[in-house]
Amino acid sequence: MSDSILFLTGHLAEPSLRRILAELDSEEGRYHVHNIGINVAALMTVAMIGRRLPSVSDVDRIMLPGHCRGDIRELEQRYGIPVERGPTDLKDLPVHLGFKGKAPDLSRYDLNIFAEITDAPRLEVADIVRRAETLCREGANVIDLGCLPETPFPHLEESVQALQQAGFKVSVDSLNSDDLLRGGRAGADYLLSLTENTLWIADEVPSTPILIPAEAGDLDSLSRAIKGMEQRGRHHVADAILDPIHFGFTEAICRYRDLRQRHPETDIMFGAGNVTELTEADTVGISTLLMGICSELRITYMLTTQVSEHARTVVRETDRARRVMYASRENQDLPKGYGGDLLALHERKPYPDTLDEIRELAGRVRDPNFRIHVTEEGLHIYNRDGLHSHHDPFELFPHLGVEEDGGHAFYLGVELARAQIALQLGKRYVQDEELRWGALVDPPPEDKLVHRNPGPTMKARRKRSSSKEKAADD
After folding, report:
1. What is the largest CA-CA distance in the chain?
2. pLDDT tens, 110-124?
3. CATH number for the domain including 56?
4. How many CB atoms sit inside 10 A of residue 138's CB?
5. What integer pLDDT is reported at residue 471 of this predicted model?
6. Whether the Cβ atoms of residue 172 and residue 147 lie closer than 8 Å to each other
7. CA distance 48 to 75
């Protein structure tokens, strides 16, 4: 039998919570609901629970509202059972509990990301190492040192060795044979790029060569280079070169397909920079599509750059996309339902509440604190004085009565601005939380997310409450 869970809630959320659990509970007595006597569940704290819940029995764990503040380890010590926070939005509870699709396993991937530091010759060694640390945190597996044409790189060897001492794998990227030899002799793991005419470099150093055509688009010369390395018994990686859109992009995609058909066992590299850098479009969609091509063709190396300002999150996006595509391919299904990291500007299900549900909830509110929701119909804000709806936040402001309360007005302005952005883009809005931007913006650390200090936000919302209502919420 599955474990028994005690859900703690407040007056307003209790009906919705019971309705959701009734739809999920197929085993009598598995889920229990306890209203600890506050109005708004989001204001619950660990200290408050300790005062209002003397003991628990006949349950295996306790589920708190997602916004509950405090150290839950205190509750675990007090009650002797596991305690956890649920989702911040009650509508996400079924997924949190493992219904309607479990959280996908995105821990695995089979593609290595080479993140190029394109201006390495102009950077100090310490700066190169710091840049590498950032790139690796975002998902890079190999740090690629880009050599610039006719630009001296006197600290190339020192840079390679400093990166390796810091624990990074390193590649040296140059069409100059001297740079490649220097990098290989310094211990670089990979060299970009050799052609059939420069295979002799691979005979001089142990680095794994990345092979490219001797002439643009010449797949035959690339095949000869591959055979040359096969005869040497050396590991190698082949790159057919991805050209920019309108300058050979479609033909390049076909070359990669042909390369895979010619050499089914060869490791292949795919360089995304000519598309992500040279197309003024949001890169998260481009990176995802390119990773889909890589997944189908079993391409296991990707070279990325982050030079253009609009491409500054490509490594992070590629990391998310490679995990999604790997899981999708291994599960033999479509790349859907694998989390929202690649839906940066939109949301799969942006509006969890219907207007009827909001009206029902608004009718039960008896305090002056404002609640804000977003639906397809617009923005909705309500408290005990009534519900107001509109697409334009400026049309809502005259109904709120906060002209004399600067802190409250500021708070509502921030929240309504977030809500309007969510409405315009089709994103999920949750009051008192920042909008989620997927792979474009790293989320705050989990402890800050769930222990968020409401500070003046909640103070402003509660300032108009009577002392009796404040005591009920505290």
Report:
1. 85
2. 999 999 999 999 999
3. 3.40.50
4. 21
5. 37
6. yes
7. 11
Q: Exposed, middle or buried: residue 349 (CB in 10 Å: 0-12, 13-18, 19+)?
A: exposed
pLDDT per residue over 361-418, tens digit each?
A: 899 888 899 999 999 999 999 999 999 999 999 999 999 999 989 999 999 999 999 9
Lowest mean pLDDT among 40-54, 369-383, 447-461: 447-461
d(CA 89, CA 429): 10
Whether residues 294 and 248 share a domain: the answer is: yes
Calculate helix-pair angle for 314-331, 125-138, nearest 10 degrees: 30
Give the domain range for residue 463: 355-473
Which helix (DSSP H) or strand (DSSP E) does residue 267 occupy? Answer: strand 267-271
* Alpha carbons 98 and 1: distance in angstroms, whole number: 15
Residue 337 lies in a domain: no
Total residues belonging to the chain: 474
What is the rounded end-to-end Cα distance, in angstroms, of the chain? Answer: 37
How many domains in the chain?
3
User: Is the omega angle on the peptide bond into residue 207 within 30 degrees of 0, that is, cis?
Assistant: no
Q: Identify whether residues 401 and 279 lie together within a single domain.
A: no
Residue among 323, 242, 248 at smallest CA distance from 276: 242
Q: Are residues 39 and 137 in the same domain?
A: no
Of 96, 129, 144, which closes a domain?
96
